[in-house]
Write a structure and sequence with these properties.
Blueprint: H1 2-6, H2 10-39, H3 70-74, H4 89-108, H5 112-134, H6 139-154, H7 162-187, H8 194-207, H9 212-229, H10 240-253, H11 257-263
Helix pairs in contact: 2-4, 2-5, 4-5, 5-10, 6-7, 6-8, 7-8, 8-10, 9-10
Amino acid sequence: MIADFAVMPAAFWVAVAALWGAMLGSFMGVVVYRLPRMMLEDTELNLAWPGSHCPSCSSALHWWHNLPVISYVLLRGRCGFCQAPIGRVNLLMEIASALIWAGAVAGLGATPQALVWGGFFSALLVLLVIDWQTMLLPDALTLPLLWAGLLLASVGATAVKLNMAVWGAATGYLALYLLAWGFKRLRGIDGMGGGDLKLTAALGAWFGPWALLPLLLISSVLHILLALVQRQRSQPVPLGPALVAAAVLYWACSDQAWMRWLSGA
């Protein structure tokens, strides 16, 4: 059996990764919904209890209501009990997670590296959605992501050596801390939250200090564009989604000449 799996074509592993990603995306949707509420002291919720249920009628969902993507399509986006509309966030999380894992395996093969980077970008996806919806970047996600970057660097599981991962984390945190401090001195208000600092530190741990300049430049441009799009709503625009998008772009384009130039490589 092991030998049979060893000779399976690459498309098989990409399909397996997509299936795994869709299932993981279903749980990520739970995290996106519940974790901010847990942070706001809704003590009746945790990530394991209560079980999956309709938020409108509170009916417990059957297993066939929880099939990633398929259930949403078969139920036509409505609860199987009360017919209330089902939010699209879970569906989008399942699709995005499937694409993340399929892309990781397609690009890196069925390797430990694909597992590492699939997990990394899955965590970023959860942070992106939570920050966009609630303006929160939970320590329960940013700090494990930071420590994971340092620990994986220590065993050579990323392209960054441990000393550079440490410098990347420290420099990333300090850079945004100084920006936030300067903004508050000039304007008298907070320009960013502590979660942005910790997320930048985590990105520095995963990518190294040389990645911080392009990450901050790209995220700044994206943040300004998002602010222009959202200007009519008169709502603050979180920085987290722009940082996540910059991280995806950096990872995808790190071998490009323009990205190497920005990184000083």
